[in-house]
Structures are given as C-alpha cells and as structure tokens.
Write a structure and sequence with these properties.
heterodimer, A: mainly beta, four-stranded antiparallel β-sheet, 40% strand, B: alpha+beta, Rossmann fold, Immunoglobulin-like, Porin, 3 domains, eight-stranded antiparallel β-barrel, disordered N terminus
Chain lengths: 344, 412
Amino acid sequence: MVKRLLILTLLILTCVFCLTTCDLFVAIFSMSPFPGYLAQAVASVDMRDDIEKFLGDDYSDWESDVYVLRNSTREQVFLVVRRNPGPQMVYVFDTKLNLEVSCEVDTQRRIGLVEALNENFVVGGVQFNYSDLSPMNPPEDPYPPISEDTWQKYTFAHGGSNYIVWNDGNQLGCTSYNSSWGTTSNGSALISMDDEVRLAGLGYEPTLVDPILGAGNTPVYLLVYCREWESDRGFLYIVRTVASEYPNPAVSVNLVTDGLLNGRTSSRVRDVEDRRPALYTRKGVVVEARNRGTFRLVSLEGDVIKSFYITSDERTPFDFDIDGKYYYVFNQTTLRLYKAETGF
Amino acid sequence: MKYRGIAPTAAIAGVFLLITTTLWTQEAKVPGKTFKTCLFPTVDLSATEEYKEYQSIISNQLRVELRSAGFTIIPREEWEPVRERQGVRVSELYQGGAAVEVARQVNAEIAVVSFYSVEERQLILEIKCYDVAENALVSGVFKTARINLSVYNVIGEAVAELIPGIRLIGPPPIIESPVVEEIALLSEDEGTEIYLGDEGFVGRITNGQLQLPPIPFAIDSKITIEKRKEDYHTGVETIKLKEPEMLIELKPLRKRSHRATELNWTLGQLMGFGLAQRFYFDPDSFFLSMEHYFYVQHNLSDSKPVFHHDIRALVGGYLFTGPHATLRMNLTTGFGMIMTYFWLADQPMYADFYWNVINMSFELNFRRIMLYARVEQKYALGSGSAHILERGWISVLGEGPSTFTFGVGRKW
C-alpha cells in the first residue's frame, strides 16, 4: 500500500514537473487577478510620500512613465510623474531602486534618451549629467530645446547625432539633430503600401552585432505594428535597419507583399495589440498579446519565445532593461516602483 | 286564464314528447344490472287540491323514465300490502324513512319518492332517490316553476336529472380491462409514509417494502406516489403500471440539508484552494456561505511568491429546480476581501475589498455530494488604506467574467 502511494506520488510529481515546462500549463497556473510582476518583484520602493507631496491634495488627474536607460558607464531608472495640466517630476533611481535625484520641470515632455552629447540622459524634459546625474537645464526651459513634439515618437543617438523617428501614414519619418540639437536633416522611407501600420517601438543596439546586417552596421530595429482589417487582427514585424543610414534608412519594405524580402524583416508575429509600445531587449522584443495583460517575448525573426503576464491595467507603466533581465513597473495604486525579474 | 282547462291535452302531449325524447337519448348504462325500484306515488303537499292532477303526471313520467333507463319497477300491488301492514299512509310516502322501510320489505334496491306543493301559482317539486341497502339518499332533484305550460318542461328536466345520480349506487362498475393485482413498493428509506393520489395515506415502508392495499388499477394506468419522511424532502413519483404484479423500487428520498462544506478551485487562483461552509436558511434552498480561499501567486519558475487570502460572505438561493433534481442552478451575491502579503521583505500587507456582484453556479446534485461550476463576477471597490486593485471589474482573463470556480460539496 505504502509502495503504491509512493509510486503514485512520484508519478504525480513527475507529471507536474513536466507540465511546468509547458507554456500553456504555466500560463494557466500563473493567471491571477493581481499583477504578475508582484510575484516577480525583487525590490520595490514606496514613492507615496514624494508623489503625494508633488501632486498635492485632491489631485486625481495624473499619469506616469518609466524609462530604463543605459550609457557606457551606468544604468538608471527614471520615473516621470505628470500632473494634467501642470508640471512634471522626474525621479532618478539606481538599479537597486535607491532614489538618487529628483527634478521638477514646468513643461511636459515625453522623451527618454541617452543623447549623443557625452551620453547624458534626457528624460521628461530634463537633461541629467552622465556622471553625477545632476540636472543640467533650469526647470522653466525644457530639454531638448526643440519645437518638435515627441509624443508617440521614438529616439536614439548614434554617431554624434540624435534621431527622432515616427511614422506618417505608410512612410517612416526621421529628423536628425546634431549633438546640440540643431536640425541637420529630415528623411523618410516607405514602410508599407497597404493596411494600417504604426511604428510601435524602436530598438537601438550599440553593442551586439546583427548577423544579417553584419559587423560595422549598428542595428536599429523598427517594431512595426500592422492591423489587417479583414481579420481584425494585429501583427508585428521587426524590421532591421542600419543606424548610420538614418535619417534615410535604405529600406523600403512593403510589409504586405514582400515582408520577408532580403531577410531584414521578420515573419509576422500574430495576434498582438498596440495598446502599449513594443520594447526591445537583447533577449527579444516584448509586445502585448491580444489577451489583455499578457505579453510575448519574440525573437528578431518573429518567433514567439514565451508568453507571460504582467498586468492588464493599461495605466501601469513599465520598461525593460536592455539585457532583458529585469523590468521596472510603477503601480499607480500603491505608488510603489517595482523591480521585477523577467525570467527570460 | 286557467291552465287547468288545457291541462289534459297539453299534459299528454308534453309527457309523450318528453318520453319520446328521453327514450331516444337515454339507455340503461349499467350493463347486466337492473335495479329493483320501488316508485312511490307523487305526494301533493299543497294547501288545496287545486293542483292535484300533477301527481299522476309526475308519477307517470318518473315511471316511464326509470323503465326506459333499465330499472325494474316493482308493481304497486306488491308494496301496497306492506305499506298497509306497517300503517304508513300514502301521503306519508314522501318521507325517506317510511318509503325505504316499505321498499326494503319488498326487496327493492332503490326507493324513489316525489312530492310537490303549489302556493301562489308557484310549483315547488322535489324528487329523491334512496339506496335501500345503505338507507342513504343517493340522488335528489329540487325544482321550482310558475304554473303555466313551462311547468311540464321543468318536470321533465327534474326527472332527467335524477337518473344519472341513481346510477352511482350499487356495486362498483365492471372494469373490463385487466387490472393490477398486486403492487409492492421497495425503498431504502425505512419508515417513509406513502400516499397515493386519491387514496391518501396507504402505508409505511417497513423492512424496506410496502404492499399496497388491493386497489384495482388498470394495466397501463399511472399512479402518483408521494413519499414523506421527517427531515427529508417530500418526493413524488409517477409510475406506469405495466404488469399485473408490480414490484416498484422507489427512488431514495433526499435528506434536508442544513449545512454544506465545499472545497473549490478557482481559475486565476489555481495554486491554492478554497473552503466554504454553507448554512441553509431553508434546507437546500436559500443559504449563507462563508468562504476562505488561500492561494499563492507564482510563475512556477523563478518567482518570489505572493500570498493571497480571499475571504467572502455570500447569500444566495436555487432557482427553477428542487432538491431532488440532478441539475440545479443557484445565484449568489456578497462581499469579500483579499489580503495580500509578500515573500519579499519589507513589503506592506494589502487588503482589497470587492463586491461579488453575481455568481451563477451550475450544480450536479447527488444525495450527499454536489459538484459545481460557477461563473463569478467581482468588482474591486478600490477602497481602504492599502489596496492593490484599482476600482473596476476584476478579471483574470482580461475581459468577460472575473473567473470560474469548480468545486465539490458535502451536504450535512
């Protein structure tokens, strides 16, 4: 009897162990009405006092963003809190979530960038010194000093220039600036002739060599969202471009008819949504699935590596470090900033 | 105008019309049986003799009707000596007691008496029929009418109404179809009282069975059996009688449940389980339920577990089907709170209050056990000093119902 029970227990444990390697089993068992990052958290910081002090009493209309930026020497986590209407506050943390600097600015800007000049950090209208994180511009003068709106636009800095990239219909638009943010040129590329496309994210990779682009070509991955109206389904394409070719990247890809042409465009990543930006990490691209709150890690070739649940609350901002090891989430209810392991 | 002048002609015409009609429309309905009937003369109870001619009219009509319906009329010559011997006057033969005694002496089965009175030209007519053996009134007719030509119609109606009542007496009708000779009920519910539709209480299950008393149910007829036992739900079964000897195994009764203990499993909370206790206000019908669900939030690989305790109180009740039904549905609503704490150090404890707006549960109902699947809809209140969930619908699926719960319950 005891022997039978022992065998049965071992059998059950073996089955459970095998099932834990099955994505569907894991997805079902790790479902929760609570955000998934709570169970991934390795650290958190309570920002209630600081944020309530900034927002003041009886203030309900506000929003936040999280940026994780790395330059040659350090990685920082930035939390931007905006009053609507009103000023915004930028909190700067190290990767252990120790608050290092905070800075209030009068004008709202949505930008997060390691800029060309000295690899300073530019977040939410504030330029932070690359070495000591001291704010370098006065609160009344937002940085960078450009008139261009950066809403739903993506940025990167390469070769001493700063670039702002966006899509305008089926054209990819790009403005390049020199290191002191003077305009140098504008450019564009055709990214699609059919369907609705939108630039959902951008990944600038200064370190790794892309096997298709080859050595010496710093890759910029365009994360392009496309909606097919017939099926009402969303797709993601990852388009490899070369940073040095901007603002006129030498790609002209019709995603509908020749999506896999010359190997620069990934295969379709099916059943994704564009409620949130797609995010590049060195483990792959993270994009939200149709099932709200569930995200997919996708290879540059467009293969789904894994699915995981973060949160279905669209107000919750998060960003990944470029290694794809951790992500940082700000819970607007508890006013806590979490550092969570990706498990990638 | 005096109707008496036309009375003889009209009476004869009227009576013959009625007789003819009656003969066409009525037949003796008791095959093989003719009742010996003592028909006594109609008695005029009027204050005057002005309307005495109705005596013979009514008597004759009754005689014709009874004969045509198959009754055997005992001649007056037979019962008259008896009446005289007993000292009963003819004018007293409207009284049931006297009439039945005379009829009994001549071995009649039925005694029919009739009387009338006329006051201020208003006829009051009464005809009664007695079962001699039972000394009981079995049929009676009471009529009133104005004295005019319509009085003959009223007399005809009264006689016609009397006949069907008489047919009720006598031995039970012969059932030509085969009947069930024996019905035995088997039941595991010792002491259950058995009731049959029209017969009422017929016995109690003893030593697992009950032999029903001999009631000649026809083959292929249906009987409805009601089962009653203290602290059990009353059960009703309708059974078709197919054979002359029926051995019927009754379905077991359902004990009234006053409490139930549940073990359940909820999607989105699969790494844990819930325990609930129901308290029925009304057995197996309306209830209050207290539930505690403990679960761990984990991704089955590198996660730091988060612990949740979901505590809620629900009230609800069953719809559509009763406690004997195999498939039942209930609705519940209530309030709850989810307490959350972390494996990770230096984290606060959170409490999320929610309104469990509606749960719809489909249940497989067995005697002591129930298995159920429940659709739940919860709304986070977003209140309290430390909570994680924002105000809004809670859902583990992103959209649609909050979650699904599967459970098993033991009824007590």
